[in-house]
Amino acid sequence: MADYESLRKLSEAVVHDLTEAGKAVATAESCTGGWIAKSITDVAGSSAVFAYGIVSYSNGAKESILGVQNATIDRHGAVSEEVVEEMADGVLHLSGADIAVAVSGIAGPGGGTDDKPVGTVWFAWAVRDGADALVDTRLENFDGDRELVRELTVAHAMQGLLERIA
Hints:
This protein is an alpha/beta fold. It is 43% helix and 23% strand.
């Protein structure tokens, strides 16, 4: 069961810090299906700091909307550092936001492999730096059922945003 109170507090902190910094955020989500965007937009006043979110669950959406290269997906798989980097960079530039977060993972219960078991999630945070973006990635392996993996992914994404809002 998700800890909605903790997610609400994280979301409020993200919206507060973005508001104080005068910045906007965008999201590119796969395994969370829009939960990060929902968490942010659940907060009153978020319209001033939320540019938009893209749920790019399929590889085709990652490619056609976010500009992820087909060769990147073929070479590394949709759940990879390289793909989330391209997702974060794509949504940052599409949205005009100042900061973006992208996630791609295997929430389960199926879909895991020996190399990428259920609970494997890649994160990327992109921060605008002039015309370019500084992109930071992280790999996490969460234990739990589908709901818990997704909840932990949302919380980790939000915590990463808090750490990067300047």
